[in-house]
């Protein structure tokens, strides 16, 4: 039961993240911006 709930939550979280991206290109840009933010924070 816990595994099913965890799977549902992960699925909803993934859908929430992807809903902000209209295309795969948009998803790539979002990931790239996130990586740049991490690099900036590390330096």
Automatic annotation (TrEMBL):
GO terms for cellular component: membrane. GO terms for biological process: response to toxic substance. It holds the Pfam family Entericidin. Keywords: Cell membrane, Lipoprotein, Membrane, Palmitate, Signal. PROSITE patterns: PROKAR_LIPOPROTEIN. Belongs to the EcnA/EcnB lipoprotein family. This is Putative small secreted protein.
